[in-house]
Design brief:
about 290 residues, about 60% helix, 11 helices, elongated, two-stranded antiparallel ribbon, mainly alpha
Length: about 290
């Protein structure tokens, strides 16, 4: 089940990255691409740029393609390796997660993640965001593509053992087969925090004087944190896995919209392929 969810997440990220390559159509495209006045008299906070979005979309597609490739690595463990594990080998901060295993928490984490990922659709209620919906959609797809793909590289590099593998209360078939070496870092947390930060950042841009801003941030981050907590409760991840996912996902959720700010130009993104690897460079100008 977990393997199926992972594969579906990667496939959705690939689809999102490819859709991000397509310019929005109709009124939304005109509102997003033209740095003029919106219908309600406000200046659009974001703009589409053929060069910028070409670089970002290319980097997203490369990142997702590379993630799909590294996901094919075998990370199985033998029964002997699992029986030789000791919770005392885990650092004190993370050790408590090795005592957790809950299928209910796992199921809850998936439901919560779906809700958090869908939450940015609420931006359509705002008339200004709705007027630039093509722009918002393209940015969100790019954001989710990065947030879903980047954890694959860490999982392939670190081979960190999941906390449930240390737990004798977890069924042995789960400990053996549920991607035991894919703990660091949490894709659920990365995608959840990317969605939460994206929603809050874009809401701030369209409604900079709204009194609801702190409540949007608090609610979205709390929902994302709940996803991470559920992953720890399920025995799928250590707290540090969730923290790393939150940092990476939050960065994606902030950087992609920031790179599209109208009149900005203080952030530049470009694909990077050093030594046959795949990545993205981020340049900040102060």
């Amino acid at each position: 089940m977990e393997d199926l969810l992972r594969k579906r997440t990667i496939r959705l990220a690939v689809l999102g990255a490819m859709l991000a390559l397509c310019p929005p159509s109709g009124a939304s495209a005109r509102a997003a691409a033209t740095p003029g006045r919106e219908a309600n008299g406000g200046d659009p906070p974001y703009r589409l740029s053929g060069r910028l979005d070409g670089w970002i979309s290319a980097a997203a597609v490369l990142a997702v393609a590379g993630a799909a490739a590294v996901e094919g690595r075998s990370r199985d463990m033998t029964l002997g390796e699992i029986e030789a594990l000791s919770r005392s080998d885990i650092n004190g901060f993370d050790r408590g997660a090795a005592y957790s295993y809950s299928e209910n928490a796992r199921a809850a984490s998936n439901v919560l993640l779906a809700a958090v990922v869908a939450a940015p659709l609420a931006l359509a209620v705002d008339d200004r965001a709705r007027g630039g919906w093509g722009m918002v959609s393209a940015m969100y797809l790019e954001t989710i593509a990065f947030a879903a793909a980047i954890p694959s590289y860490a999982k392939a590099s670190f081979d960190r053992i999941r906390p449930q593998v240390y737990n004798p209360d977890a069924p042995m078939d789960v400990r053996l087969s549920d991607e035991p070496r894919c703990s660091f870092f949490s894709r659920h947390a990365s995608v959840a925090f990317a969605s939460a930060v994206f929603l809050s950042t874009v809401h701030d841009a369209y409604r900079p004087h709204s009194g609801a801003r702190p409540y949007v941030w608090a609610a979205s981050l709390l929902a994302a944190a709940s996803v991470g907590a559920a992953r720890c409760g399920a025995g799928k991840h250590f707290p540090t896995d969730v923290v790393a996912g939150a940092v990476v996902g939050g960065a994606a959720g902030w950087l992609v919209p920031r790179a599209h700010r109208a009149g900005g130009g203080d952030i530049a993104l470009a694909p990077l392929a050093p030594g046959g690897g795949i990545g993205v460079t981020v340049e900040l100008r102060f």
